[in-house]
Amino acid sequence: MPVPVILAHRGLHRTERENTLGAFRAARSVGADGVELDVRRCADGQIVVHHDATIDGKALAVTPMGELPGYVASLADALDACAGLVVNVEIKKGKHSSAPADHARDIARRVVDVVIGAGRAADVIISCFDLATCRAVRSLDTGVRVGWLVHRGRDVVASVGVARDAGLHAVHPHYRAVNAKTVAAAHDADLAVNVWTVNRPRQLVAMIELGVDGLITDDPASALALVGRPPEGHSTLA
């Protein structure tokens, strides 16, 4: 049975602040194959690691990086902290009125430039719920993998066809939407299946038995134990 890649959701945030360098280093310390992190574009064009659109009431879209709290890392620094690990970079779609008219292409180019500049094309996958952003990343044709995050309630099998036609590399559905049929459909389309956010042992075992390619989890240590891999072992992207 294939062993899935175990990705710590926003780093090991049960012991560290989520989406921070400390959380990423902690994920490494427990043996995670990699991390899932969220990025946004701030006012000066920098790509920073943060989940929400605001910090302390300030919209990132209108705030330069230099005015953000010190714990907010740049994507470049996050990739450096995750050297040797798989990194799932989730692009958060900009909704603020100051976002560029072509936000999808703008942030896609900026994120890809950071990834390529860091020499990380081989072990990074860029994902987004917004299909236009996924297509924009793919259109740059840099060799960086692209996964479409599938909203809960959406037909995953139908989404597989859309992702395949867009030339993407993976679908990222919620684990509750995944069954043997959806995994088979994705693999038949030569797409990886990376599921979110799986935490309970029974759920983790079910996904492993279905043969998914990646598990995004808040509990990477338990997931590693269930797949029977020691902390020094690592899996890579499908």
Can you describe what's shown?
This protein is α/β, with parallel strands linked by helices. The chain has a single domain (5-227), classed as Phosphatidylinositol (PI) phosphodiesterase (TIM Barrel, Alpha-Beta Barrel). The protein is 32% helix and 21% strand. The chain contains eight helices and eleven strands. Strands 1-2-6-7-8-9-10-11 form an eight-stranded parallel β-barrel, surrounded by seven helices. A two-stranded antiparallel ribbon has the order 4-5. Helix 3 (103-117) crosses helix 4, helix 5 packs parallel to helix 6 (180-188) and helix 7 (201-210) crosses helix 8 (220-227). The longest helix is centred in the middle third of the chain and has 15 residues, at 103-117. It is globular.
**Known CATH architecture:** Alpha-Beta Barrel
Please identify which CATH superfamily we are dealing with: Phosphatidylinositol (PI) phosphodiesterase
What ranges have pLDDT less than 50 throughout 5 or more consecutive residues? none
Q: How many β-strand stretches?
A: 11
CATH topology: TIM Barrel
Please identify the structural class as seen in this structure: alpha/beta
CATH class: Alpha Beta
Principal-axis shape equals globular
H/E element order: EHEEEEHEHEHEHEHEHEH
Number of domains: 1
